[in-house]
Amino acid sequence: MAGLTSSDNETSREPFSVLASMLVVGACTAVFGCCTPYLAAAHAAEGVTEEPSILFQRTCAGCHAGGGNILQPNSTLFAKDLDRNGMANVENIFQITYSGKGRMPGYGEKCAPRGQCTFGPRLSDSDIRALAEFVRLQADQGWTK
């Protein structure tokens, strides 16, 4: 809007700023948007309902943000603690996520006894498997961002 800017110089830059913004948005959509359907299709084929990193943020990060553990500091999701605590592979991580242990609730659809399981929504086996694979991968990479 030409009459609202403080100088003619700012007014002359306005079309360039709009064009630059449109190009940046277009480039991001082209680069990142093209991959999203393929990733979503791969996870859907496996029965995974949500991207594992998002699932982790929604389900686990309350206690395990960044691979830590706010309730039991010696039971983090870093490789050294997973290995020391018998959680060295994806199957071990799957089992504890499914059934829970100690203060960690289980998230499996058939988790029992009820007192050991989450009061929130349960996760499918496919989601728990994807989550376990995500946790092990992050542990192996040192929980980099």
TrEMBL record:
Gene3D superfamilies: Cytochrome c-like domain. Coiled coil: none annotated. It comes from Physcomitrium patens (Spreading-leaved earth moss). This is Cytochrome c-553. Keywords: Electron transport, Heme, Iron, Metal-binding, Thylakoid, Transport. Pfam families: Cytochrome_CBB3. InterPro entries: Cyt_c-like_dom, Cyt_c-like_dom_sf, Cyt_C6. One of its GO terms (molecular function) is iron ion binding. Functions as an electron carrier between membrane-bound cytochrome b6-f and photosystem I in oxygenic photosynthesis. Residues 47-139 form the Cytochrome c domain. The keyword Transmembrane does not apply. Belongs to the cytochrome c family. PetJ subfamily. The keyword Lipoprotein does not apply.
